[in-house]
């Protein structure tokens, strides 16, 4: 299941990240696009149509990149086919790979799926290392889409370096420091400090407010900072023994027990309503989360939110995607050139400015659209600086074929502890039994 830029419940909202720090947030997309397909044949004048199939929001239309590519290549028209939910997109994509038919020239891949495709379907993709230098991406991003023998099945698009989004006004009312540097200092010891700050907040919490939205979101932040999460380097499922999973589960159960969380599944209607009401003080915040918060919290809380660096000294990533070129696509060479262009620094910077999706291409970090980017909605937080520094020190995590299933199942049981009062031992047993049925 796609974690990054979750599409459930999205509404259309256009906003821009400004390098001057005067505008904010990003566009959320419910899904659109023409489902028709091109025959693959050039017309009499040599014109062709390249199809791009993806899910949720990749930001290319919002940044005007397909129109720009047509200007640069008048004989090529790019048509995007968007599926709103990744969980609908992926099974169809697998079926197309298996049959070798119905594939777009370019196909999006979510990070929670890429390892499964690397391990089982690598031969179905063009080796993009022959087209693009993988060294242009942050190193851990390139490794995610690479086989053991160096074949690269996907070019990195966005990533989700972590931070903490918090309500300055609620912190002040609770007698806590609100300056982002001071908040970061309070969290310098790690996620344990995050819970300790939550206990301080609870003592003088404004009526009807909660320190965090969801213990499962904090859990994902904790696990995402570990190099070994759900699988070992040998490909074995180790989630029951993983130090990162154990730490995340322990902290999540503490948050529930201490009633520091409102117990809301992220992206659900109640979560959206809580943001509108203003009852949430902090959110574990990968780069793409700012757009969700600004959209659902609305104009009433503009400038009252801020962004501090992630707790502790270990950086973390939550989410991200890739562009691939199926080997049986109709225009493999031209599709490879399009992917190369879309994932180049200038285009990734344009997507960040238009849609708030943070680049995986290191070359984008020195461009003004990224380097000086600030979010007005979040008290002019210097997000370009915060996320670029984080992105380059994130550990290379071991991915597994069922990472998404494991993460989602554990998160569901954490939500059950919050919402239903399920005891931790019972929740863990339910999670492991469900996971083992899927992974064998």
Describe the structure in your own words.
The protein is of the alpha/beta class. It has helices at residues 65-72, 86-99, 111-120, 139-144, 168-173, 180-186, 191-203, 215-223, 243-257, 269-277, 289-297, 332-342, 345-355, 368-371, 383-391, 403-420, 424-439; strands at 48-55, 76-83, 106-110, 155-161, 163-167, 210-212, 280-284, 305-309, 317-324, 358-359. Strands 2-1-3-9-4-10 form a six-stranded mixed β-sheet. A four-stranded mixed β-sheet has the order 6-7-5-8. Helix 1 links the parallel strand 1 (48-55) and strand 2 (76-83). The two termini are 18 Å apart. Mean pLDDT is 90; it is low at 1-16 and 18-39.
Give Rg in angstroms: 21 Å
Q: Which blocks of ≥5 consecutive residues have pLDDT under 50?
A: 1-16, 18-39
Bin the strand percentage.
5-15%
Strand order of the largest sheet: 2-1-3-9-4-10
Category by helix and strand content: alpha/beta
Query: How much is the average pLDDT?
Result: 90
How many helix segments?
Answer: 17
Give the helix proportion (percent range): 25-40%
Shape: globular
Question: Major beta sheet, specifics?
Answer: 6 strands, mixed
Question: What's the total count of β strands?
Answer: 10
Q: Give the SSE order as H and E letters.
A: EHEHEHHEEHHHEHHHEHEEHHEHHHH
Q: Between the first and last Cα atoms, what is the distance in angstroms?
A: 18 Å
Features of the shown structure:
single chain; 440 residues; alpha/beta; six-stranded mixed beta sheet; four-stranded mixed beta sheet; 10 strands; globular; disordered N terminus
């Amino acid at each position: 299941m796609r974690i990054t830029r979750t599409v459930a419940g999205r509404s259309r909202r256009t906003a821009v990240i400004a390098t001057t720090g005067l505008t904010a947030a990003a566009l959320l997309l419910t899904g659109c696009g023409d489902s028709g397909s091109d025959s693959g044949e050039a017309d009499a004048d040599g014109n062709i149509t390249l199809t791009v199939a993806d899910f949720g929001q990749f930001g290319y239309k919002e940044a005007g990149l397909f129109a720009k590519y047509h200007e640069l290549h008048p004989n090529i028209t790019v048509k995007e086919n968007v599926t709103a939910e990744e969980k609908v997109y992926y099974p169809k994509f697998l079926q197309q790979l298996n049959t070798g038919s119905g594939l777009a020239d370019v196909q999006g891949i979510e990070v929670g799926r890429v390892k499964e495709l690397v391990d089982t379907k690598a031969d179905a993709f063009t080796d993009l290392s022959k087209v693009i230098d993988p060294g242009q991406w942050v190193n851990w991003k390139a490794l995610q889409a690479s086989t053991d023998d160096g074949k690269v099945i996907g070019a990195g698009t966005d990533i989700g370096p972590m931070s903490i989004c918090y309500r300055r006004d609620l912190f002040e009312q609770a007698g806590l420091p609100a300056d982002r540097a001071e908040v970061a200092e309070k969290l310098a010891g790690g996620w344990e400090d995050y819970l300790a700050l939550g206990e301080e907040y609870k003592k003088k919490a404004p009526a009807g407010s909660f320190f965090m939205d969801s213990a499962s979101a904090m859990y994902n932040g904790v696990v995402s900072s570990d190099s070994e999460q759900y699988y070992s380097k040998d490909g074995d499922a180790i989630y029951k023994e993983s130090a990162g999973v154990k730490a995340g589960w322990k902290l999540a159960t503490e948050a529930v027990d201490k009633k520091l969380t409102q117990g809301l599944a992220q992206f659900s209607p109640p979560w959206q309503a809580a943001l509108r009401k203003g009852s949430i003080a902090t959110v574990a915040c990968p780069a793409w989360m700012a757009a969700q918060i600004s959209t659902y919290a609305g104009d009433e809380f503009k400038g009252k939110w801020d962004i501090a660096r992630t707790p502790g000294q270990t950086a973390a990533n939550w989410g991200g995607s890739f562009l691939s070129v199926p080997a049986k696509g109709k225009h493999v060479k031209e599709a490879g050139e399009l992917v190369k262009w879309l994932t180049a620094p200038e285009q990734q910077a344009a997507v960040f400015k238009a849609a708030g999706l943070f680049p995986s291409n290191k070359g984008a970090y020195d461009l003004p659209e990224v380097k000086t980017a600030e979010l007005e909605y979040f008290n002019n937080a210097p997000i370009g600086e915060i996320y670029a520094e984080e992105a380059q020190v994130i550990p290379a995590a071991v991915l597994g074929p069922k990472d998404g299933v494991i993460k989602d199942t554990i998160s569901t049981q954490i939500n059950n502890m919050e919402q239903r009062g399920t005891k931790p031992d019972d929740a863990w047993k339910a999670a492991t039994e469900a996971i083992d049925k899927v992974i064998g």
